[in-house]
Amino acid sequence: MTGRLFIVGLGPSDERFWTHEAQEALALAQDIIGYTPYIERLTLRDDQIKHPSDNRVELARAEDGLVKAASGRVVAIVSGGDPGIFAMAAAVFEAIEFGNPDWRNIDITVIPGISAMQAAAARLGAPLGHDFCVISLSDNLKPWRLIEQRLEHAARGDFVIALYNPASKARPNRIDDAFSLLRNILPSDTHVVLAKSIGRKNEELILTNLSSVDGSRVDMTTLVIIGSRATRRLSRGAKEDWLYTPRGSK
Amino acid sequence: MTGRLFIVGLGPSDERFWTHEAQEALALAQDIIGYTPYIERLTLRDDQIKHPSDNRVELARAEDGLVKAASGRVVAIVSGGDPGIFAMAAAVFEAIEFGNPDWRNIDITVIPGISAMQAAAARLGAPLGHDFCVISLSDNLKPWRLIEQRLEHAARGDFVIALYNPASKARPNRIDDAFSLLRNILPSDTHVVLAKSIGRKNEELILTNLSSVDGSRVDMTTLVIIGSRATRRLSRGAKEDWLYTPRGSK
């Protein structure tokens, strides 16, 4: 008897970002595993079992899903954003690599979702409209020196840069270190956006630039976008400015 | 009288990738504008008007949508994938910047979608599970030298790399040039995936490495993913291998 494991992306906030296949997987699942706030948001049937857990236990959550699926259950591990982008999918395959060999026989389906950078970009215009890099500033699992190297290459390559996990209680100053590093490479008028709680009621967009950006405004809900030299800001009177990166470069 | 303009992402293939907000925007639209194959796939009501156009006329398509919305119509410009990632959203804001100043007053909503790299990554496991760069190989609108510089920085920064537009009839050898450049920097056993026609009936995944990859297998429907040094391939007997990039680096 073999179950199934869906790793489902729910997008950055509410159901408007759900895809049809995400909804179908949730309807099929007997067990739904995930970070407590994501799980609590879901409306499920009485026969479906919720297994909420803490944010920091990704690997334990992955193993829990694999054990249940291997026992014959239909399991959904839910993830904010896209499970394939700084989220649960990598944790599941890491658990498989170093776990029970039988887990390689489980029928696993990864269901992509709208990632935070996409929802933030859509609210702003089209800042990711051309070549870009995506970097997690978390140094929980990688050395800070590697993050610095990637920031340097991203800036010298004139990529638009999307920064995930730019702040945490344990590392409140990392984003300031990142901005300092980037100021040594990029023009001071490089566009910077702090996109906070995107898609939620308390959503906030701060359009600024590299010389003026205030790292203390960055929190765990913030996605940071740094423009390339080609990124343009369009003013439109009383309404919020748009930010976009043209399809080409001169 | 002011209309509205939705720039709607439909994902890489069929309706399973549609989000709720994409579907709602399509239901509201009076005029639907887009590349002919995307438009033909849509089932619309009799009162909705389709405006199919060729792939190469992005700016003209954007202007058409803006003119219609400015005249009071509710317009959807549809895009495969995510309109914010190498797609129609940047073309619309480019048209606005250099077009009729009144267009800045149009109520514009960008609706993100699942981009090709996300659907391909989901089919493979989690290759985009850690820091990555996204590069278009098209030199229609930017100099090839800039593309080379970005490839170099992406490789030296040890990013996973997703390549869009890796081939066209006009530039059949660009992908070979890109692989040659990368071979000078990255180990020969670097994982490479050619993900062809993802989500469609003729979908094909080719898992190979940098020394063996055959550029002649790359066509316009192909999304290329190049692993970082951390990317892992998991074998599982008769079934397709998985590819994933761990959340951390040692």
Task: Outline the structure in words.
- The structure is a homodimer of 250-residue chains.
- Chain A has two domains: 4-114, 3-Layer(aba) Sandwich (Cobalt-precorrin-4 Transmethylase, domain 1), CATH 3.40.1010; 117-244, 2-Layer Sandwich (Methyltransferase, Cobalt-precorrin-4 Transmethylase, Domain 2), CATH 3.30.950.
- Helix content of chain A is 28%, strand content 27%.
- The first copy, chain A, is built from seven helices and 13 strands.
- The first copy, chain A, has helices at 20-28, 36-41, 58-70, 88-97, 116-124, 144-156, 174-183, and strands at residues 4-9, 31-35, 49-53, 74-79, 107-111, 125-126, 132-136, 160-164, 191-196, 204-209, 222-226, 232-236, 239-244.
- Chain A is globular and about 55 Å long.
- Chains A and B meet through helix 1, helix 4, strand 5, helix 5 and strand 6 of A and helix 1, helix 4, strand 5, helix 5 and strand 6 of B.
Features of the shown structure:
homodimer, 250 residues, alpha/beta, Cobalt-precorrin-4 Transmethylase, domain 1, Methyltransferase, Cobalt-precorrin-4 Transmethylase, Domain 2, 2 domains, 5-stranded parallel sheet, 5-stranded mixed sheet, 7 helices
